[in-house]
Q: What sequence folds into this?
């Protein structure tokens, strides 16, 4: 099979899994799509409400709602991609029954699905806020798009590693949750890097996810700049995790049992 | 054309390594069909999955010169909460086929009435097999991998299946697993016996059956 023909087949397969995923994830319940929106919306409103209650203000030039939303959506996009891609083979193993479907297709389709979902969630939540406040200014739209895309890539690459580990050992698979959960607190949902003490900033910057949040915020708010974003550092993480994930996939490929 | 060269498949179990297929080689040119006999658990279905490419052999190579079907059997990879129609749409997309045609032809062949639009989880085993069989017939394959599917269904459906398979065997190939000598005689030219990981090919179904029954 030529490379071009192979790519056509792969895109057909990924498209098919993507479409099927929309049915199995959201199609089961009434207003299933609403849950995708409601989940982050509840978190944003809770935290924003808490901030208002303790009279803590968002950083200069940001409103609390947008501040939290621009932090939580890149984080959720990352975490959800890592989680969903990580379970893609164990959760959709039956599809490997079709010889055309490869493990990597299951992973890619889920990664794209998360990106599409959270991309839409971002547009809807920020759009609603814009409508409510009668004000919608985006400083650098391309930065926002780049931040979300990189969060998706980082999550998908992490998911590839989890996925291969999950096939090798169910025990190691259980470590995934505890590994991911602390990231919620250190990924810039509640703070910007600029608001941190000077000596803590480089430390916080070691966490690749924070660069995604910083990118989105610097693109969204006129008053915030991308001073603390290191794109090459972020890309290095994505590249490294992808290489490790794909190498592990080659190792476990023959171990995946269909029936 | 299908060619297997030195295929070995080893599973690791808690009680050590278990060799399911031991250095299996054979070739099935287009236009000819082969049956496979063997006891339960002999590794027939594993062999079929390896031929199709859903599972990888531990060593050896498979050469496929044509479009090979997924194994057509009882289960299929149907998602229980999706309807028969939705499952067909998925398969049509994977194989780059025209969705409406595949849905229409599968519905007509499977002939399961309104159930076609209900979740597959509500189907009986026989209905699932009917759907799987109808689906595989409505996608254009050259080589059909058939796993004991003709054993289900009422007499009328069995007849319909045999007729459809025979038609496909004229220009393409069938690789058929069955315990029924009559079915194999009807569909296949050659026949192989799989026993303790070793595969032996015989020129006629009767020759294979003599060894197998002995």
A:
């Amino acid at each position: 099979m030529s490379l071009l023909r192979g790519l056509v087949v792969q895109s057909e397969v990924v498209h098919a899994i993507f479409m099927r995923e929309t049915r199995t994830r959201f199609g089961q319940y009434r207003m299933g799509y609403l849950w995708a929106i409601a989940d982050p919306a509840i978190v944003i409103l809770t935290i924003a409400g808490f901030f208002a209650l303790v009279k803590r203000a968002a950083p200069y030039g940001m409103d609390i709602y947008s501040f939290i939303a621009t932090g939580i959506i890149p984080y959720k996009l990352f975490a959800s991609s890592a989680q969903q891609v990580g379970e893609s083979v164990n959760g959709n193993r039956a599809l490997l029954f079709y010889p055309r479907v490869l493990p990597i297709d299951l992973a890619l389709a889920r990664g794209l699905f998360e990106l599409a979902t959270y991309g839409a969630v971002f547009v809807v939540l920020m759009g609603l806020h814009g409508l409510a406040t009668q004000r919608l200014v985006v400083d650098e739209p391309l930065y926002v798009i780049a931040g979300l895309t990189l969060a998706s890539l980082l999550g998908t690459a992490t998911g590839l590693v989890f996925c291969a580990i999950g096939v090798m050992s169910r025990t190691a698979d259980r470590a995934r949750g505890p590994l991911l959960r602390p990231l919620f607190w250190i990924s810039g949902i509640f703070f910007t890097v600029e608001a941190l003490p000077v000596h803590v900033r480089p430390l916080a910057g070691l966490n690749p996810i924070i660069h995604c949040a910083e990118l989105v915020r610097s693109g969204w708010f006129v008053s915030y700049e991308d001073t603390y974003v290191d794109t090459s550092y972020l890309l290095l993480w994505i590249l490294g995790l992808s290489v490790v994930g794909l190498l592990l996939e080659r190792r476990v490929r023959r171990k995946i049992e269909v029936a | 054309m299908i060619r297997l060269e030195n295929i070995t498949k080893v599973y690791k179990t808690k009680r050590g390594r278990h060799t399911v297929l031991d250095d299996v080689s054979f070739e099935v040119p287009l236009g000819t069909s082969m049956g496979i006999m063997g006891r339960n658990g002999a590794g027939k279905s594993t062999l079929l999955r390896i031929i199709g490419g859903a599972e990888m052999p531990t060593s050896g190579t498979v050469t496929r010169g044509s479009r090979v079907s997924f194994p057509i059997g009882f289960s299929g990879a149907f998602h229980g909460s999706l309807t028969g129609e939705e499952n067909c749409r998925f398969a049509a997309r994977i194989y780059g086929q025209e969705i409406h045609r595949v849905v229409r032809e599968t519905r007509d062949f499977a002939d399961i009435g309104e159930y076609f639009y209900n979740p597959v989880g509500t189907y009986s085993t026989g209905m699932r097999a009917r759907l799987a069989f109808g689906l595989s017939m409505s996608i254009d394959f050259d080589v059909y991998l058939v796993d004991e599917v003709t054993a289900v269904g009422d007499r009328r459906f069995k007849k319909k299946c045999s007729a459809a398979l025979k038609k496909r065997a004229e220009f393409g190939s069938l690789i058929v697993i069955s315990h029924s000598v009559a079915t194999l005689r009807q569909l296949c030219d050659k026949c192989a016996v799989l026993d303790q990981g070793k595969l032996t090919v015989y020129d006629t179904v009767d020759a294979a059956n003599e060894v197998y029954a002995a």
